[in-house]
Amino acid sequence: MSERQDHASPGRRPTTGDTAAVAPPCAMVIFGAGGDLTKRLVMPALYNLVTAGRLPDGFRIVGVDHGRRTVEEWRQGLTDMMNQFVGSHDGEFQADRLDKKAWQWLGERMSYVQAEFEDADAYKRIGQHLAELDKTAGTAGNYLFYLAVADRFFETVVERLGAADLVGEQDGHWRRVVIEKPFGHDLPSAKALNASILKVLQEQQIYRMDHFLGKETVQNIMALRFANGLFEPLWRREHIDHVQITAAETVGVESRGKFYEQTGALRDMVPNHVFQLLSLTVMEPPTSFDAEAVRGKKAEAIQAIRPLKPGWVERDAVRGQYGPGTVLDKPVLGYRQEPNVSPTSNIETYVAWKLQIDNWRWAGVPFYLRTGKHLKSRKTQIAIRFHQAPHALFRDTHVEKMNPNWLILRIQPDEGIALQFAAKRPGLTMDLGNVSMDFSYKSYFDAKPSTGYETLIYDCMIGDATLFQRADNIEAGWQAVQPILDYWPAHAPKDFANYAAGSDGPAAAGALLARSGRAWRPL
User: Fold this and answer.
1) Is-contact 415 441, C-beta < 8 A?
2) Cα 164-57-101 angle, rounded to 5 deg
3) Band of residue 89 on the pLDDT scale cut at 50, 70, 90
4) How many CB atoms lie within 10 A of CB 164?
5) Which listed residue (211, 242, 273, 374) is catalytic?
6) Can you name the residues that pair with 380 across neighbouring β-strands?
7) What are the DSSP calls for 191-232, one per residue?
8) Which residues of 178-215 are buried (b: 16+ CB within 10 A; e: fewer)?
């Protein structure tokens, strides 16, 4: 155990096989400190890092927001929110109790600066505050700026940080910036945002956040593929019939109607969350787990998506919008009846897409993506269907058909991996049944609950960019979806609400697979 671990945050020490070190001293500056993201995900993740013993004594949190409040008021608001989460099991943060010692340790390291994000003078005050922390709190001149703000402020905040000389790296001090999604709204805006922030920051200073990549099963995709001689030889077109990637939600747009009217399911989910799952599934083996080696292979995977021609959009992409229905035994409104949503809105809340990867490994294998709100169940998974075995051997038996083999990677809610295959039923005749070998992280490893942000925030602190998107990865994702973004507005449906809330989605999504004799796995 290192000396730094002796001065770490309270909580458990790394257990056997858990080799992660304590993060280096730093000040974490959260722009948007009063926002929902900070309360629901960032602070719970920091609390989990405290209980895991990952934060150093020289760690401080500086909240920045336009609201006029004292640090005591900010801290109390966060405390109240954490207490609401405890035992509710209604969000990403799962805990039966709040460790008062750990939360006190974190609370004592909080400070607050009231500032308008556009105000250049505010950044001078932030700089002065950080310099004082370097002297008195041992933050060592290392700053992590977290942009938990509306995307319209990304460029402004980065420019102001540069102008205030807060992101220049010198004398061994590091300065990093975390940018949440959405990173652009289409290909031109993503390119423009990349160009703007790269005038101020080096690529290695930019951490484009996608919290899906903090999920254990997502990180385990590479381990499953590349650490097992069983799977990697089969991970190719010769053995795989098709792949289904699902990101289904039971929640609707709730209070986000204004945001969703400008975004929709395609922009909100596909170029980021869903493509991250896709890239890890199809990428070629990197030469090492070095960040640039992994991110280079992920970018190549997305760049290999076959471009959609205008005439193909109607055939290969399906959009849907939920109408009134029942979700988890509760009646819910249709999208057009939600607050801040137009009663004639044609914004999609569901997307299904059949795409092809044009490379040697995957040529000819269809990938089916779907994501939507107010669906039957909450489920994020990657399902890989292998080619069926020949039936000839079983012609003179009671076997009527050969059932396919599936490898299912569950991302949420029950993280794990299942392998489905055929086995003979007990009896005197040859009769096959489907069986499943199931691995659950929670039961096997006694995995601690997490929001998905813990790993990502820790990686920002230690400078590991493996799980973050590079500029070329972002732009490749927008490049792939741009034909759909261009086509849909000019061909908007006159009568939408084509699936009931609480259902599997629109009928057209089922037809997308049925044309080739396939079907979605049930939600």
Assistant:
1) yes
2) 120
3) low
4) 18
5) 273
6) 247, 412
7) HHHHHHHTTTS-GGGEEE--GGGGSHHHHHHHHHHHS-TTTG
8) bbbbbbbbebeebbebbeebeebbeeebbbbbbbbbbb
Closest CA to 183 of 174, 192, 175: 192
- pLDDT tens, position by position, 28-38: 999 999 988 89
364: left (phi over 0), alpha (psi -120 to 50) or beta: left
Q: Which of 283, 282, 315, 300 is nearest to 384 (CA)?
A: 282
Q: What is the DSSP letter of 272?
A: I
- How far is it, in rounded angstroms, from Cα 447 to Cα 39? 23
User: Among residues of the chain, what percentage have pLDDT more than 70?
Assistant: 87
pTM, rounded to two decimals: 0.86
The single-letter DSSP state of residue 515 is T
DSSP one-letter code for 442: H
284 Cβ neighbours under 8 A, 6+ residues apart: 297, 300, 301, 361
For the chain, the maximum distance between any two Cα atoms, rounded to a whole number of angstroms, is 84
CA–CA distance, 80 with 96 (Å, rounded to integer) = 15
Contact between 383 and 243 under an 8 Å Cβ cutoff? The reply is: yes
Q: How many Cβ atoms from other residues are within 10 Å of residue 462's Cβ? A: 14
Phi, psi of 472 (to 5 degrees): -70, -30
Cβ atoms of 180 and 150 closer than 8 Å: no
Quote the CA–CA distance of 436 and 228 in Å, as a whole number.
19
> Nearest to residue 102, comparing CAs of 6, 4, 10, 5?
10
CA 8 to chain CA mean position, Å: 28
Dump pLDDT digits (tens) for 243-265: 999 999 999 988 888 889 989 99
Contact 320, 506 (CB under 8 A): yes
pLDDT of residue 36: 85
Q: Is 211 a catalytic residue?
A: no
* pLDDT of 207 strictly over 60: yes
Q: Is 242 helix (H, G, I), strand (E, B) or coil?
A: strand
Taking only the tens place, the pLDDT of each residue in 166-180 is 999 988 899 999 998
Question: Within the chain, how many helices (H) and strands (E) appear?
Answer: 18, 18
